[in-house]
Amino acid sequence: MSAKDKPWGGRFKEATDKQVELFTASLHYDRRLYRYDIEGSIAHAKMLVFQGILTPQEGRIIVRGLKDVRRDIEEGRFSFSPEDEDIHMAIEKALIRKTGDVGGKLHTGRSRNDQVALDVRMYVREEIKAAAEALGALKSSLAALAGAEKDTIVPGYTHLQKAQPVLLGHYFLAYWEMFDRDAERLRDCLRRVNRMPLGAAALAGTSVPIDRAFVAKLLRFPSVTENSMDTVSDRDYIAEVIFDLSLVMMHMSRLCEDMILWSTDEFKYLEISDAFTTGSSIMPQKKNPDVAELIRGKTGRVYGDLMAILTLLKGLPMTYNRDLQEDKEPLFDAIDTTKASLYVLADMLKSVTFYRERMKKEAASGFSTATDVAEYLVGLGVPFREAHGIVGGLVSYCIKNGKTLFDLTLEEYRSFYPGFGEDIYDVITVEHSVNARKSAGGTAAANVAKRLSDIEGT
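Predicted structure:
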């Protein structure tokens, strides 16, 4: 294509090198922005008519032409040319083919710089809402599991060592809280995304008497950006949304790690259904938690998207630089990967079978109620540090003699502290341990029931 045929080609005498055209093209990935580009262009055309820059007839021709282009794309009739740099130029060229010289007036008062900024903000705004909806589906799955397993006792771990018994419902609500924070972060990010950039033009604004507030109202933006230089160079919101999605992925990865571990023969706390697992090409007995493993693996991919954006932005001088074309692929990938992971994990969780008796048995092992013994002594007036030492001695004695806390006689207990009574055997049960933890946010059944009720009421 001759340079003069390009929208910026007026000062150029030589044709663009074919290799350069291929190297600089973004149409193959930014074509997904077509709806936002057309919607923004329609709003811009209506504003130009409102301001008397276009005649009403010209405005109608342009709007009708843009809608025809949109219909052609949606119905598969649009012919994308490899000579088109990006979706914005592809649409503008198609519009001019349909409307003639009138279509060439659409770009009055705007630049590709602020046009791209508008398209991406509109895309991110919609995708944040879609990601929040997917988060809602996962949170619903977790709340349902928490309700179904509100009485199931499972070992709680620190350092991957058995620590104290907890309710499985409490465990799932822990992840509910994580994903609720993720949803809150996305909502907060949306406030910064939802500012209308069109009108910044190339970097300095425009002398054309445009009305940015008019366009903002048409496109449902509550406000406009305040500084034209910042507007065309700002990609903070892209970094922010990918960071938020990285945290979503991290939380899913942690949950998947537990599901992977708990499904092994070594744990055998649960089984993931056949629909969300795969087999081995050589070992017929294998049942592999591939979905959970892939989510865990894809988390690193989204982290990579975040690092790509941060690295892209770190050395850019003001204002717009072509480097910023590279912001879209990491953004698209992070959004696509996170949404797909959210939906498949929500469905996978519904398929899990829990082995409750084994969980309870394992929760009672490993001296998991030793802290309850120490707190029992505190209730008798023993300072906690002294109580800690007494129970540590009891545990050491049990290990040496191959006993559990249940195996010890009252006399053996009293050899370590004379105040032990028969009620110590009630204290060391996992049921007592769980329900004794009534402090706000603790694992007691009453707390879990209240939190579930609060969640259902929101």
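Summary: The radius of gyration is 31 Å.
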